[in-house]
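Researcher: Here's my situation. A collaborator sent me these components and asked whether they could plausibly form a single complex. I don't have experimental data yet, so a predicted model of the whole assembly would be a useful starting point for our discussion.
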Amino acid sequence: MIASTLRRFEGFAPATPARPRREIIDREAVRETARNGAGLGLTLRGLSKSFDGDRPVIDGLDLHIPAGQFVAVVGRSGCGKSTLLRLILGLETPSAGRVAVEGGEAPRRIMFQEPRLLPWARVLDNVAVGLSRGGPAAERRERAAAALKEVGLAEKAGQWPATLSGGQRQRVALARALVSGPGLLALDEPLGALDALTRIDMQAMIERIWRAQGFTALLVTHDVAEAVALADRILVVEAGRIALDVPVAVPRPRRRGDPELAALEGRILDHLLDGRT
Amino acid sequence: MPALALPSPGAAARRLAPWLLPAAILVGWQIAGSAGLVSTRLMPAPLDVAAAGWRLAETGELWTNLGVSFLRAASGFLIGGGIGFALGLANGLSRLSDSLTDTTVQMIRNIPHLSLIPLVILWFGIGEEAKLFLVALGVFFPIYANTLHGIRSVDPQLVEMGRIYGMSRPELFWRVVLPGALPSIFVGLRYALGIMWLTLIVAETISASSGLGYMAMQAREFMLVDVVVLAILIYALLGKVADLATRRLERTCLAWNPAYRSA
């Protein structure tokens, strides 16, 4: 335990992880039209990842995600969906294959199930962590305050994270991810720890901000209903491969309990449950 | 709850409550002494002790000894605490430093540092170095162990978050690792302050030519029991002052932590 913690500290990355190494990402000329010109397109070719020579977690995966699309990734626990997200973000190095990012230098951000706020920094300073270093302090504060306002927490700017509720903390984490104007936002079960009503509010908030800002969104979730409600397209991952790739053609704003959505949810759940051995 | 924010008779009572017991003990003790229930030769009454304090304060003896003891305590604390803090940081951040030094430190830690007094007297005589050495050694371990523990128990998820958001190594240290380790470092600080006084008094009692411990030992030679008791009461006060100072520091530095927020 102690040794592993130390290893983490030895692994302090001096480089900016938002811009991973060149050999992993080469910006191909994959032309896509982004909704607001803000989103990043992604192309994965033969992407594989195995840890310590074990059975691969991601196994020769090919995928193209156009800029600005909202993609949900669902699958059973341990199917490799979180690893896929970490590979795309450059938090893990692929064992084979590559991730090509197209559409510029916009930052890529990730939001986890835990808010991961700094408990010793005020809410506003936590949001400002998402901004690149440097630049005038007044402007940084202004941008952070604007992002806080976007998630409806403007009045909490001077508070400590410990005084917020779970849902509010997750909204601060969302503001931190959004403050730099990301081209790609990865969401790793961001609503998994919230109660049902807070989840619904947060889903609506994420959808509204995504529609306004036009970034590419990648949502990993256990909740098929959430995937169906939010995504343009749903990927079912099984044993490190994409087992199902379904578009969700229902127009927005979507109504909760829409029969078309329910049918789609049923189809995907059937697929997930049939895959059981 | 606005009622809590207003100064009320209840709030004043709550502030005074901790001092009720010490005051009652003093009064009872005085009555027992005046009534002749306790021999004032062995246990002088509080007023006699106060008179002794006044006498020594007037001649300046009290202030000189207090100052000497305070300087010894502070410099020993700074030296030992500084080294402990630096080594704790180094071993928390670098595996190489840890594997080189931690085993040695853990071995030395198990020696009661006061058992070194005979050796220290042989080395340094009864000069200042002996006291400094003992205090520094006593203070070193709690600061070292708690700094190291604090750094190792920083949430790795926060460290990963810092890296994802592009923090440089120094930035990660100042903004994530050090603040995360601070509560544990304060625990070490409190322990160290206690050990600091203990060590100094023992060292001064055994071998010194000035300081509070020396003052008490001299008084014993001349059967000045009131001065002995005075010295003991001063230790109690000094301990309380050190504790108050740490508390205040904790409330300032750890205001984000609900456990340390002032009521």
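Model: Some features of this prediction you could bring to your collaborator: The interface with chain A takes residues 92-95, 98, 151-154, 156-169, 171-172, 175-177, 179-180, 182, 254-258 of chain B (CB under 8 Å). The mean pLDDT of chain B is 89.
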